[in-house]
Amino acid sequence: MSKKSTLMKMLKFCRPYRKYLILAVLFAFISVACSLLVPIFIGHVIDGMLGEGQVDFNLIYEKGMYLLLSIAGAALFQWLMTRCTNIVAFSTVRDIRKQLFFRTQKLPLSFLDNKLQGDFINRMANDIDLIGDGLLFGFTNLFTGVITIFGTLGFMLSMNVTVTLIVVVMTPLSMVVASIIAKRTYRLLQEQLKLRSELGGHIEEYISNQELVKTFCYEDRAQQKFERLNHDVQISGVKAQFASALINPSTRFVNALVYAAVGIFGAFRVLNGQFSVGQLSVFLTYATQYTRPFNEISSVVAELQSALAAANRVFEVIDEQPEPADAEDAKVLETTEGELQLEHVQFSYNRSKTFMEDINIHAYPGQHIALVGPTGCGKTTIINLLMGFYEIDSGVIKIDGKNVKDLKKDSVRQKFGMVLQDTWLFKGSVKENISYGRPDSTDEEIIEAAKAAHIHRFIQQLPQGYDTILEEDGGNISIGQKQLLCIARVILTKPSILILDEATSSIDTRTEILIQKTLSNIMEERTSFIIAHRLSTIKNADVILVMKDGKIIERGSHEALLEKEGFYHNLYHSQFAKTAT
């Protein structure tokens, strides 16, 4: 995305607050007008003191009062302008962050799976803060800067055209210097943000998996990788900030030359009687005020470079194509018998290589189907396709004979209940975590679900029972207890179709027996898909689908597949042999 298009997108988010921008410009105009009157009154005061015994106290008192009022007016309207620009900047940042989070909820899993969590956190927090800083600094200095340039130019022209031309001719040099440096700064800032994002992703990844790091004694290698990334961020940051910092002193140097030229030329005019000392004082002040905005605007350019680089990363996500919307005539799936069909389904993660081809599955209401096979064979992919997390390349997926493309995705997903091997809990009460899928459920329903999941007694032993606050991802309870809470969450939603992905993998043997019994009761009248690595847990499945390399190579009951003495037979007996050993 070009800098121009990125800037236009940023300004588009500012549009709802244009009334504050208009007020900010008005207040900036008044503030600058008051500040431009200050040198004039100072000049009058100086001219009122011609020498010893030649002091016009009445003039000094009168102009002194005007001077104080001008200073007070400039400060007041400067404060009002800053308040308006604050509202615009922080409201815009809030809207961008809101839009980014909203878009994240709408993005397909295929996009999210290819991004580090730390990268999204950086975009959501740090990058958007940089946008806010750029807008705030830009609006505040841009409005006053532009008005000051034209205001001082008008006052100087009214006083002396020749001296004004000296100022006008020399000042653009600072903008030329600033633009040359800014081009290099933008590229360096983009590189810095990219490296900072990688570092954030690395930190998030290793902090959240400290148990695994310590288990495999990976601390030293993790530290080395961190230090390498941290060093890259440091080098990139030094280069970017150095390039950015060059703008201010470079423009100040040019401005100092302008001030010196005006001072020397004006001094000769005073000696020739063409200027009074007060007028020279006014002109020198105006020369400083005229050149200062160029210096400030160059700083704005540097700040905007950082904001635009950050905005480019944010808009990259916001502009990403969302998950395909429901068809305009899509219908709500009110109820379902639980019949599922996959007909000639083809799917690929990468368009250049097909992963699944001609997949055909027919699950009848209440039927239990097990998916088995080596890691990476496509078991979880089948589940993701059923849930609509990924779009199929061709073929049809049906529920109760209805094409899922003709149904609203939310209504379809609400009919599924998933118990995964990987648990997920958020920081909140036990009650809130269980009722995540049904926030309107009653306390009695929540307790009933917890009892069915054999977690009720444990919850009662917690300090505040169901109101006990769990840490992020359930950090203050065991893995098995987290999985039981997730099972209770699914039981509460009373789904029509169950998906079990090694649902009892982290539970002790005694509890597993109870959970298996509970799940069996739940599965009695529901269509169920069971992903299992321990084949002993799916002996009673109605149909076992054996997968390999994205294909279904065998299907049938447990006994029938053993009799075939094919891939399943070898898989089962190899696992049994290992268990026996």
CATH superfamily of the domain at 90-318: ABC transporter type 1, transmembrane domain
CATH class of the domain at 90-318: Mainly Alpha
With strands numbered from the N-terminus, the spatial order across the biggest sheet is: 8-11-12-5-13-14
What structural class should be given to the helix and strand makeup?
Answer: alpha/beta
- Overall shape: elongated
Q: Averaged pLDDT, please?
A: 81
Number of helices: 19
How many E-type strands?
Answer: 14
CATH level-3 fold name of the domain at 90-318: ABC transporter transmembrane region fold
Report on the architecture of this protein.
- The two termini are 60 Å apart.
- Among the domains are: 90-318, ABC transporter transmembrane region fold, CATH 1.20.1560.10; 331-415 and 528-581, 3-Layer(aba) Sandwich (Rossmann fold), CATH 3.40.50.300.
- The protein has helices at residues 3-14, 18-47, 57-106, 109-112, 117-159, 161-170, 172-207, 210-215, 219-271, 277-318, 379-386, 409-413, 430-434, 443-452, 456-460, 479-493, 509-523, 558-564, 567-580; strands spanning 49-51, 54-55, 340-347, 356-363, 368-372, 394-399, 402-403, 416-419, 428-429, 469-470, 497-501, 527-531, 543-548, 551-556.
- The mean pLDDT is 81.
- It has 581 residues and is of the alpha/beta class.
- It is elongated and about 120 Å long.
- 64% of the residues lie in helices and 11% in strands.
- It has a six-stranded mixed beta sheet with strand order 8-11-12-5-13-14, sandwiched between helices.
- It contains 19 helices and 14 strands.
Short description:
64% of the residues lie in helices and 11% in strands. It contains 19 helices and 14 strands. The longest helix is centred in the middle third of the chain and has 53 residues, at 219-271.
